[in-house]
Amino acid sequence: MHGLPLSLKCSLPALAIVTICGTVCPTADFSELRFIDPDPATGTSTAVAVPPGFALAHTGIILPVNRDDEVVNEGDAAGQAARVLANANWALAAAGTGREYTVMLNVYAANEAALAAARGRVAEAFPGPTHPAATWTIGEQPRASVLVSMDCVAVAPLRAPDRVTRFLSHQLPRPYASAHVAVMPPGEVLHLVEPIGDGASLAAVGEAADRLRRRLEEHGLTAEHVVQVRASIKSMAEANGIWKQIAAALGRELAPPTVIVPQQASAPRPASVEVIAVRPGARGEDAEATIYPPSR
Predict the structure, then answer these.
(1) What is the pLDDT of residue 285?
(2) Which of 21, 86, 193, 213 could pair with 274 in a Cys bridge, judged by C-beta atoms 3.0 to 4.6 Å apart?
(3) Contact by Cβ (8 Å): 270, 197
(4) Distance CA 97, CA 91 (A)
(5) Residue 174 clears pLDDT 90, i.e. is over it
(6) Closest by alpha carbon to 38, among 28, 48, 29?
(7) Cβ-contact 56, 185 below 8 angstroms
(8) What is the mean pLDDT of residues 225-245?
């Protein structure tokens, strides 16, 4: 294992909700990051350990679309993967970070051929020293013409130590009032999951979101503490409607970044909606590193 010897500075203002577009400008010493079993041939690591105290940017689902929300490179999985990686970089840049600080990459492909093409583009995108942990999933995509999509996590500058900050990129279409990326400050991280049943109807999603809000309140938190929403559904035919439902239920001005993926046949739990939330604050000297990919 080895670290990433980089240190950057950022002077951007800390705002609860900001829309920006600019150059990469993180603020932390990254020498303590550990890339476990990094493989330059694939551009990825078996795992990445992030020490306590680091702020982490979580994106929503990133699609191969242009600024007009039109799918590009139809039928070309490699071209779509390249566009997705470029769009992910735009999303991360909105939070003041970039691809080179990625610690986790989730790749979703429509079929084996598309997955192989995506692997090739990922290897090109991460020649080193950064080699993020990665998961690779084959399944139905949010749109019929999409072959590759992704979401990612990257180390980011800490804009506000006491709250989650959400951002939009002017280079990307706005997804149903959801942020493209959110920065999670150090603190206690909660993963709350509610099942939505096999039908995954819009009503079931709304009910699950209501239950999640109540559970957050039980922990003394609100929807403003949510960093990312992940929905695993049986059929992607309702993806757009579910995305809108989540944004309406868990957002005010700007909802959390949202990832919608198909439920896997081998999944140990039913279709569900999950929120990743944080209780900002010091975690203490005995706090453990965050390991990616996380075990769910």
Answers:
(1) 54
(2) 193
(3) yes
(4) 9
(5) no
(6) 48
(7) no
(8) 88
The contacts of residue 116 (CB under 8 Å, 6+ apart) are none
* Residue showing tokens 């690779």: 136
Nearest in space to 189 (alpha carbons), one of 214, 221, 211: 221
* Cα–Cα distance measured from residue 292 to residue 118, given in angstroms and rounded to the nearest whole number: 20
Task: Return the HEC string of the chain.
Answer: CECCCCECCCCCCCCCEEECCCCCCCCCEHHHCEEECCECCCCEECEEEECCCCEEEEECCECCECCCCCECCCCCHHHHHHHHHHHHHHHHHHCCCCHHHEEEEEEEECCHHHHHHHHHHHHHHCCCCCCCEEEEEECCCCCCCCCEEEEEEEEECCCCCCCCEEEECCCCCCCCCECCEEEECCEEEEEEEEECCCCCCHHHHHHHHHHHHHHHHHCCCCHHHEEEEEEEECCHHHHHHHHHHHHHHHCCCCECCEEEEECCCCCCCCCEEEEEEEEECCCCCCCCCEEECCCC
Return the closest-CA partner of residue 167 out of 153, 185, 180, 154.
Answer: 180
Phi, psi of 230 (to 5 degrees): -125, 125
β 47-50/290-292 pair status = antiparallel
Tell me which amino acid residue 161 is: P
Tokens 């493209």 sit on residue: 180
What CA–CA distance (Å, rounded) separates 40 from 46?
A: 12
Please give the C-alpha separations between residue 145 and each of 16, 72, 141, 266, 293, in angstroms, as whole numbers: 35, 9, 8, 25, 28
Residue pLDDT, tens place only, 8-22: 222 222 223 332 333
- Rounded to 5°, the CA angle 272-275-281 comes to 160
pTM of the predicted protein model: 0.88
pLDDT of residue 253: 79
